[in-house]
DNA sequence: CGTTAATTTGAGACCATTCAATTTCGGTGG
DNA sequence: CCACCGAAATTGAATGGTCTCAAATTAACG
């Protein structure tokens, strides 16, 4: 067993120091928390009372640079974090310092729901690019959830969908080779982006470096590079300078074993909210 | 792309037909649902009112043979299923028919919590050995959860722990080679069994075949065999005829990158239930 | 005791890693 | 505008890990 410095304790992470600027309770009449509803309204209806209660929650805003840590493993979990703009990942650092990316996070998502019953965060949340987040007090949100069934349901639903997504990811790692894993990752990214209405024309902004793709797929950076070239050569994608264009969506899904219907189903039609209670 | 029959549509699955024997509302004064509390009381206190409400729920009992399907993907989800005795897995069948095992389930667990907001099950639940389950009506349990915050919290907590476990599993698949993946699987199995107080002396009953281990780790059956032999030769485990003995726990954890503290933390100390509400 | 499933073994091909070294790219300062 | 720098992307060759295919052995079960 050899000891070495964690991979990400030097170089690029240094320039990404945590820059937190608190904003306090909003006075301009529009809460960033409204972004939550964009994702929720399609899945489960939320009552107007719960909605206004949510919007009325005090929050603080913060911005983080590329590769900065939004939440650190082991940190006390005193607040919930909503990703307002930009992309984030959930990751853990293995004992040898290698980074393991467990899931992706898009604007409008609670990035740390899983921690809501833990005193200390069980993994790191890291910014992919320059991001903005809003934090709300954990105890206040829990109280709100206790009082408002429809809000509770939406948040619970959100975390359940995350769980299902993790299950799919496991399947991808088990069944796919390098090309399949990368294809799956790209498919999931594009599909979730599309579901959030954030694609632009023929493609989208893709904020992951090849090393980050490698960390998410469990591959080497080198082999990720070669596999990406193969995907490009076979005409499935175009990817350069953080811009991704999927040239053959069906083929990409085929390679990655990505079931678009599965994801779609969860975000819309079949996710009918069971009546937890009448509000 | 070649087409072939799904791997598990012939041979061994045939003899494991679904045998369901309904028992109706219990009259003997003891509900199998009480098994739930063994797992819950250590994590989150549950009120006596909620407890008696849960015990009072009508349920039906069913037994399934080895490899039988308890829940099938796509099936309407009209009930929740509690595993009473035996072991089960959550799995999906890939398009080529290969089975992908996503998670393990132990007695006292809700095996289909993730489906509670879905109209149709999104994966299969399969028995590992001969098992007994209890089913309760989905709508009745949801109503109960709406009325009893402490019950709701326990169930939610359960599903959150499942999510965290999936995350760890992803990490294992990303970072580990064959030996590491198998070591991790064995560690998780033993650790969860131990947490449930189900180990016996030096080892435990281990119900998975080598092919099932392969399906859970994303390896080939053949290579799983060779890797198990390597683990045996290095003196870490003893495994034969469904009996597992871990000879060197620390070394096994080391190989699999299994963080025992992590799992333990979730089951006991740090899982203090945040006050969702006062009941 | 016979049948079927499960485990084991071998050899060759293929996939992914390692360890360099090299090139491209975006940003920075002269 | 150019020179420079570090980070990211790319390339090559050798090594090691895993898969495939097929056959043999052992174990489980009626």
Structure characterization notes:
2 copies of one chain form a homodimer. The first copy, chain A, is α+β, with helices and mostly antiparallel strands. The first copy, chain A, is 38% helix and 18% strand. Chain A has 9 helices and 10 strands. In chain A, the strands form 3 sheets. Chain A has a 4-stranded antiparallel sheet. In chain A, a hairpin with a 2-residue loop joins strand 9 and strand 10. The N and C termini of chain A lie far apart (58 Å). The N terminus and C terminus of chain A are likely disordered. Chains A and B meet through strand 5, helix 3, helix 4 and helix 6 of A and strand 5, helix 3, helix 4 and helix 9 of B. Chain A binds a DNA duplex (30 and 30 nucleotides) through helix 7.
Brief characterization of the structure:
Two copies of one chain form a homodimer. Chain A has 279 residues and is of the alpha+beta class.
Spans of chain A of at least 5 consecutive residues whose pLDDT stays below 50 are 1-29, 273-279
Shape of chain A: globular
Structural class of chain A: alpha+beta
Helix fraction of chain A, binned, reads: 25-40%
| Largest interface by Cβ-Cβ < 8 Å | A-B, 59 and 59 residues
**Could you tell me the strand content of chain A as a percent range?**
15-25%
Number of helices of chain A: 9
Largest β-sheet summary of chain A: 4 strands, antiparallel
Number of strands of chain A: 10
Order of helices and strands of chain A: HHEEEEEEEHHHEHHEEHH
Regarding quaternary structure, what we see is homodimer
Distance between the termini of chain A: 58 Å
Mean pLDDT across all residues of chain A, rounded?
Answer: 82
Q: Measured on Cα atoms, how large is the radius of gyration of chain A?
A: 19 Å
Query: Order of strands side by side in the largest beta sheet of chain A?
Result: 2-6-4-5
